[in-house]
């Protein structure tokens, strides 16, 4: 089936286009964009179904590369029903694909989770869908730990942090069936560099974080393959003007991307603005780091084995911030309000940039021919009107 969408504005990779159109071809479960651009420059195929979104903005679907759960479920549960509940919530907030993210846990627990989530990822990659629901789809797993710094572990349990070894990494990789896309690792820990190299060789996007690294150690991590930085400012050695450390390098090294939790709580709004000035519209990425409590009322929840209390937009484990209840559409709107960025540039941080960091920009994160028909319909203020996943309209 051929479909064409029209709207006041279409966000193409080059620029926002007025009176735009997106044409895609769908088999009811997957869809591919055939063309996107100005209405008068694109020939709409005869017999195509037309959906007009009037004054709205058509944007690529959001990609969240760091998310632990939502709707009362943690992705580490790994069951089809738990993942479906999270994926439905994500789609309501404009997210069309995501990296289910593990927390550091006992090795046997992690391996079991990886088997289950890995199967969901493999099924998606092979185009095997149990139904045609318009839910966010997993791109690949994000391993947050176990190769992180004990000095900057945040709420990750100290006892489960592992000494980095290629052997342990391979065990995790094999358990997932090759479904790991991202790994957060601390470059300064003994044995980390060979693991970063091995993971990079496997096609994993290594993101430096949960780290107490000095600047030189961070640069060594980048040389070994590190491509991004995880929740910049959080669980990182603090910035000092005579000892720049990991932060000084992450903010200034043009070789790497960096992501941030822009909820206004993890990092103050002015520091989000500083981050955006440093990394710019091509290297900054938004993540949510959202927990199972996202989309749920205030109360007590679990993060792995930890008790979490959620009040408003704060998630606390005792005195430590423990993940967020942020949604990606809210993060995009926060960038607009914290830094006075326009919608098109703010959207890039949740679409094209994470896709480029993952190396999947030919399929995801852009409204361009050949990309999956993952589309979010937004208001001018960045509110989600409709989400389309693989050509399936939610
Ligand atoms: Zn996290």
Overall description:
The protein is α/β, with parallel strands linked by helices and 394 residues long. It folds into 2 domains: 2-58 and 381-393, Urease, subunit C, domain 1 (Roll); 62-362, TIM Barrel, CATH 3.20.20. 28% of the residues lie in helices and 28% in strands. It contains 10 helices and 23 strands. The chain has helices spanning 80-92, 107-125, 166-175, 192-201, 215-223, 245-252, 269-283, 328-339, 343-348, 352-358; strands spanning 2-11, 16-26, 31-38, 49-52, 57-60, 62-67, 69-70, 73-74, 95-102, 137-138, 141-144, 180-185, 205-208, 228-229, 258-261, 284-287, 299-303, 306-311, 314-317, 320-321, 375-378, 384-389, 392-393. The strands form 5 sheets. Strands 1, 2, 3, 4, 5, 21, 22 and 23 form an 8-stranded mixed sheet that branches. Strands 6, 9, 10, 11, 12, 13 and 14 form a 7-stranded parallel sheet that branches. The protein has a 4-stranded antiparallel sheet with strand order 17-18-19-20, with no helix packed on it. Helix 2 (107-125) crosses helix 3 (166-175), helix 5 packs across helix 6 (245-252) and helix 7 packs across helix 8. It is globular. The chain binds zinc ion. Zinc ion (ZN) binds at residues 66, 68, 101, 144, 289, 323.
């Amino acid at each position: 089936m051929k479909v064409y969408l029209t709207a006041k504005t279409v966000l193409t990779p080059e620029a926002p286009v007025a009176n735009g159109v997106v044409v895609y071809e769908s088999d009811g479960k997957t869809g591919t964009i055939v063309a996107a651009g100005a209405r008068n420059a694109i020939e709409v195929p005869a017999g195509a179904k037309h959906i007009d979104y009037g004054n709205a903005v058509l944007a690529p679907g959001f990609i969240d590369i760091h998310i632990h759960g939502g709707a009362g479920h943690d992705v580490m549960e790994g069951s089809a029903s738990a993942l479906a509940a999270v994926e439905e919530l994500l789609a309501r907030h404009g997210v069309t694909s995501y990296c289910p993210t593990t927390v550091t846990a006992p090795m046997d627990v992690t391996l079991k989770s990886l088997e289950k989530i890995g199967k969901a990822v493999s099924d998606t990659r092979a185009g095997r869908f149990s139904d045609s629901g318009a839910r966010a789809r997993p791109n690949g797993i994000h391993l947050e730990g176990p190769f992180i710094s004990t000095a900057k572990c945040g709420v990750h349990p100290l006892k489960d942090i592992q000494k980095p070894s290629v052997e342990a990494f391979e065990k995790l990789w094999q358990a997932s069936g090759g479904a790991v896309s991202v790994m957060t690792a601390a470059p300064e820990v003994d044995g980390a560099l060979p693991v970063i190299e091995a993971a990079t060789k496997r096609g994993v996007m290594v993101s430096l974080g949960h780290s107490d690294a000095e600047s030189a150690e961070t640069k060594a991590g980048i040389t070994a393959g590190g491509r991004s930085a995880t929740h910049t400012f959080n669980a990182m050695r603090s910035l000092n003007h005579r000892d720049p450390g990991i932060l000084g390098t992450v903010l200034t090294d043009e070789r790497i991307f960096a992501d941030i939790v822009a909820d206004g709580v993890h990092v103050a709004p002015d520091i989000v603005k500083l981050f955006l000035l440093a990394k710019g519209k091509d290297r900054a990425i938004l993540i949510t780091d959202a927990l199972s409590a996202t989309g749920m009322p205030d109360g007590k929840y679990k993060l792995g084995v930890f008790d979490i209390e959620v009040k408003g937009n704060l998630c606390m484990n005792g005195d430590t911030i423990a993940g967020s209840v942020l949604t990606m559409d809210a993060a995009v709107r926060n960038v607009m309000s914290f830094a006075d960025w326009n919608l098109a540039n703010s959207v890039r941080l949740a679409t094209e940039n994470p896709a480029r960091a993952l190396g999947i920009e030919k399929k995801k994160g852009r409204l361009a021919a050949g990309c999956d028909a993952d589309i979010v319909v937004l208001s001018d203020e960045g509110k989600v009107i409709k989400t389309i996943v693989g050509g399936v309209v939610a």
